[in-house]
Amino acid sequence: MQPSNPGAEQPSPQPATVYARIGPEPLAQLAVRLYANIDSDQRIRAIFPADLSSQSESVRDMREFLTQFFGGPAAYSDRKGHPRLRARHMKFRIGRDERDAWLENALAALDSVASEFAIDATTTAEIRGYLVHASEFMINQPA
Question: Looking at the domain that runs over 20-138, which CATH code has it been given?
Answer without folding.
Answer: 1.10.490.10
